[in-house]
Specification:
The structure is a single chain. It is elongated, with a radius of gyration of 31 Å. It is mostly helical. The longest helix is centred in the C-terminal third of the chain and has 22 residues, at 440-461. It has a 5-stranded parallel β-sheet with strand order 2-1-3-4-5, sandwiched between helices. The chain has 27 helices and 5 strands. Keywords: Phosphoprotein, Repeat, TPR repeat. It holds the Pfam family TPR_16.
Length: 543
Amino acid sequence: MSLTHSHVLVVDDQRSFQVMLKGMLNNIGFNNIEMCETGEQACKYCDDRPFQLLLVDYNLGVNKKNGRQLLEELRGKGLITTEAIFIIVTGENSRAMVLGALENQPDDYIMKPFSQRQLSSRIERAHQKRQAMQSVLQPLNDKNYPEAIAACHTLIAAGSKYSNHCKNLLAELYCKVGQYEKSEQFLKALLAERDITWAKVALAKAHMGLKRYDVAIQTLEELLTQHPLLLDAHDLKAQCQYMLDQPEQALQSLQDAAEISPHSIERQQHIARLSREVELSELTQNTYQTIYELSKRSLHHNVEHLLNYVRSTFEAAESAEEATRRHKYQHEAMNALFRARHDNLYGNFDFATFEGLCQAKLEAAKGELIKAKKSYYNALKGLVEQGKDKLPIEFSGEGLITLCQIGEFEEMQHLAERMQKSTNLGTYARDALQSYQADDAQHERVAQFRQCHQDGSRYYEQGNYDAAVRAFRTALSLAPTNTGAALNMIQSLLQLCKAEKKPHELLRECKEFFRLLDGVSLPSRHKIRYQDLKQSYNKLQQK
């Protein structure tokens, strides 16, 4: 076979199996064979040269990249050609592992132990299919879908051995280019001839594209009754249910799929977002932890997965009714940050600021608004010391939620405007912004606050300090820790104090409002006013 002249890579963490497999390959006729023990090493090998055949063990050691993750990374980085054959080799046969491996669609999957004849047969079969399908696979890899569609038609018309596979791809490609009606007609014609499971799944996808969500769900439910392990059917059903505004049902469908195959990061991300939407904080936390663990050794490794895990853990602490569970979650979040800070996996990421913002958000959720205000501005103080004058956009979700809760509406509005203009918002920040935009009650509260605050400022300018105090008091009832309103209230009270012969009550009230600001690392525009007012207050106290 011509493939025997190609380069082969064997990836297995057991030296004895490497040697045995190399012997089999030599006997089949392969001579250009290289071997390595880990997925990380395999990536480096493939970066140096192309391999036409890769035989990869699924489990490559504890805390190491596995075979599924290796295949995903090689494809994601363009380190595997359309002609290359990727076969997963494993001694395990658990349903979750097998289905998880097959979701990434390797060319084949072979269980240990196997004979030389079995190995040769699998390689030959995969090679023939790859060669016959090249006219489709190359444009598909290049995302040239019209060319891939044309190539499928050509192979089907020629009566190719792989016509059935081409028909499956053709239905998918029609959907990819938005030709859902064409896909539907094509699939109905196929199903009229005989019952085909994949065609029913593809037909449901076409129905979904045509916004016939109920019809798609009915098709999928009938299919799942006969084939309960069809992952695509569970996923599609969840998408349709969500489009019908049934988030709880969609979440259940995704959980059913994840129970069958728990290793898909994409599916777990959908579960996390839906569970947060329906306010199941414990499930959200567990799912983000799963995503974080799955991403560590994969193509998806980045700091955002860590942050989402920590965020969801703090949110679980916020919603926990029992103090012991609240402390457990807080401790878990802090431990995760501590470990990440010392793992040196995330470059110069600013863990201190993130931790401070999470703490502020947690305190605000518990109603400890003064503590939250101090934590928030102390976190920002660290940024100022680093020479940064704005909250980094990756922390904007925490910032927006906390500013809303502590009533710093002006800063909140500025931050929301920045977020709207940003092109690289993370999922968490995007969700926070959407929640803020959809919160009509919050917008009404802000509008009422602004009106009262404007009234107070107008009364103050007119010299009507009593009316100004009443207006600012109403404003502060809507936003009890708003810095600008607190400073204006103090300024108005001090003006009244100057006119009173015995201003002790007014001074006591001033003291209460200073308490909102004492110990807070205020922005410079507020800090100067605060210092001037404190000086005036101290002078009146001495009289």
